[in-house]
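User: Before I run my own analysis I want an independent prediction to cross-check against. Here's the chain; please return only the structure tokens and, at the end, one sentence I can use as a sanity check.
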Amino acid sequence: MTDVVATTKDDDEVIFSPLSLSESVGKLVSNVKFQNKHKSKITPLAMLAFATEVSEKIIRHKDKGVLLQYFDGLTMEIPTCHQHNNPHYHSIAGTKLLYVDWERTHGIQVPCPDANCTGALQSDRSNFSKNQTLFPLFGIDGSPSWCIVMVLVCPCCRRCFNSNEADILVNIPEHAAAVYPVESTYALPTYNCHLTRNATEVFSTIMVTYGNGELCSKLLFNSINRDYIQRLKVYYSVAKDKQGSVANYPERDGAFIKQYPPLGDTIRDMYDGSASSQKNAWCISDHDRHIREIQSVNTDSICCQDHTFQVVKSYMKGLGAKAVWDVATGTGEIASAVLVPSTRTEDFAHAAQQLMKRKDFNPKVKYSDTWPSKKE
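Assistant: Structure tokens:
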């Protein structure tokens, strides 16, 4: 980030540089009053100090050009500064701060997501200006990013929306929504964090096969641990070159990271919520799309029916499922798959009858490894 000259109300020139940022963050973090004010916050203290500086000197600046000069789309990456080797500032260098305000950053007037309302949303207050909090985004590329999220209010129906939730992302142009690094189906309003697009794209290949939420959670934790170790090495390496006294680096738990990534069960719930969400450009959930894909499978040659038990391990025991009855065609496609409480014919008979009623499902050969049992 290059030095930019901004003008205050008194027309005094203020240099907002990496060095001045490092010094300002260092002063705030060491301020006892600032520490006590934010001791219960889930955001690292250094990140709150940086957001305070940015909010006062950039976001609230009367010249919009200053905001656009520092933020690329929605994002400002905290610049590195080795001139002032402050450990607290170093612990957040390279971290991304997002300012999600579509009107100021993109000039977009967001329509009210309610289909029965013709109003346009207006900016109210942000989570930082109201409660001095930041919204975390967890990914697999290091420590979390943090968001200043604007609250939008409809003057007609009086409903409130966060500027980073799915209802907003699907009602703005694609080029703008893409700048927020979270898929709209994963921008769930019921969670206190979001998973970034690069994380969910990786998780989608794991969850479908194994339902392994714990592995996904470990990947998020490991990315934070690796990032912390790398920062430690760089910080003490710079201090060694300068051959001077050096302050202790912030502890990982409780200082570098105060809010941890979601655990396996929560990630699994997020995945299920995303799969059932219709908050996308085509207004149909992945769950419904997959059902329609299976329902469209046809054949005029051969089909094979069987029971599989391994799949049931991915389901809750309270469902009472003992197996999955499935039918495959000669092309390898699955034409039907239903949970059944037992392998008795009466438990899958209805599914079999519905399958045979499909217009283009006319197999000439039906195969079963239980023949002649269940031949009916």
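Sanity check: The first helix runs from residue 18 to 29.
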